[in-house]
TrEMBL record:
InterPro entries: 5'-Nucleotdase_C_sf (IPR036907)
Biological processes, Gene Ontology terms: nucleotide catabolic process
Entry GO MF terms: hydrolase activity
Organism: Hemiselmis tepida
Protein name: Uncharacterized protein
Gene3D superfamilies, A to Z: 5'-Nucleotidase, C-terminal domain (3.90.780.10)
């Protein structure tokens, strides 16, 4: 209150970096325990690469890549449709996976497609 008899309240706020405080060990333990499920999901394999060559999204915007082909094929099959078109700009990892990187995980998917990517199924009669 600016003055004892006033009816208006003055409120001020200040942003402070959390680094100014020491972490609380009990809270860290709770967060670590709760995040275990998230870590398990991040490491869950979505598919095992058994195709020829290296799994790659390198230069995805200018050429077909093994990863983009695998992803759209899986989406097509999962959606039960005849064709899947995915804008190449959504796949942003631009990397070659190591030959021993066989299991493509949810974490890999998040790094390849870091933003929301809306999908629709459109009936196209006449085929």
């Amino acid at each position: 209150w600016p003055d004892a008899g006033g009816r208006k309240v003055t409120v001020t706020t200040e942003l402070k970096p959390v680094s100014e405080w020491e972490p609380d060990a009990k809270v860290e333990a709770i967060v670590h325990r709760r995040m275990e499920t998230v870590r398990e999901l991040d490491n869950a394999p979505l598919f095992v690469w058994d195709g020829p060559g290296v799994l790659s999204s390198k230069d995805n915007r200018i050429q077909e890549t093994t990863l983009s082909t695998k992803l759209v094929s899986m989406l097509r099959d999962a959606l039960g449709c005849d064709c899947c078109v995915l804008n190449a700009g959504n796949i942003r990892g631009n990397r070659d996976y190591e030959p021993d990187h066989r299991a493509f995980t949810y974490n890999d998917l998040k790094s390849e497609i870091p933003f929301d990517c809306e999908m629709i199924v459109v009936p196209m009669p006449g085929h």
